[in-house]
Every structure is written in structure tokens, then in C-alpha cells.
Amino acid sequence: MITGTDIREMVEQALDEIRPFLQNDGGDITIVEITEDHVVKVKLHGTCSTCSMKPMTMKAGVLETIRRALPQVKEIVEVDC
Description:
Layout: H1 4-24, E1 27-34, E2 39-46, H2 54-69, E3 75-78
Parallel strand pairs: 2-3
Antiparallel strand pairs: 1-2
Helix pairs in contact: 1-2
């Protein structure tokens, strides 16, 4: 059985795959929360927070990368905190 800690580690590993691309553009991403129903809440930093391509990055980049590692993830939600 996958625990909450395991899920967080798997999501972090998936984000580590795309983080260099975000950092090359002056941005970054951090996990804020992973809910019990497998919704991953993230915060975009730097230039990623204001980029016009943010919706595409979130869907095609972040969500797809995480789903490859953890198919049960239902959604990625950007939060401001």
C-alpha cells in the first residue's frame, strides 16, 4: 500500500524531472498539499507564476509528468499562499 509519505516522495521525484526546465526560465514549483483524494496543490514561483504559458505548463508538463509516476493523481491545482 502506498502511504501519504510515499505519494509525496513520488510527486517530488516527478517534479524533479521538470524542475530544471522551469528553473532555466527563472521559475520553480513546490508542493503545497496532496489531498486524500489525490489532488496535488502546487505553487509556481518566479517567472512561472506570471507566464502566459502557465496553463499549458500545468497541464502538459506538470500533470502529465506526475501521472506517469503516479496515475491515481486526479488533478493539479495551483494555489497562492
